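Changelog-adjacent note: as of this version, every example in the card shows the full chain rather than a window. The one below runs 176 residues end to end.
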Amino acid sequence: MSELKKYTIGALVANKSGVLTRISGLFTRRGYNIESLSVCATENSELSRMTIVLWGDEYTLYQMIKQMDKLEDVKKIGCANELDCVYRELLLVKVSAKPDVRSQLVEIKEIYKAKVVDLSLDTMILELTGTPYKLDGFLKVIEPYGILEMQRTGVTVLARGSHTLKDRDCYSDHIN
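Full-length structure tokens:
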């Protein structure tokens, strides 16, 4: 059996009602968990871009791409390669920020290039955009201060250079 790793699937899908339900249903029926899901409209009003992160082996990845590709609403699909793509995610995190530790939090946010987007007497909401690894690292550093709540958008990804998902002819060359 292959080792489990994190894979990122990018897909251009029809921008219409029910597509997300059908695709997430594929994962549910096969017992696979979606670790991250991001969906948005694209420059073409008829298409949405979907980015799905899942844990699995190469067989799992191949099966999910193959099953998704069978859906009429999936127009293009591929597996993103970390070396050839730009990955980003947005994090909003509310931390306990009593006056005696506030300056420490401001120092940390400067190092990570986070922004303070809200401040109250006892809390601070910080915003950070970056790779999922950067966000994970930031959360570990601020965790001792008391994370009250947080929200992550999910991974978004685009290929570097002139390559685009809509130019892909097939997906098989994206599987290692």
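Structural remarks: The beta strands are 5-14, 34-41, 47-56, 74-79, 85-96, 115-119, 123-130, 147-152, 156-159.
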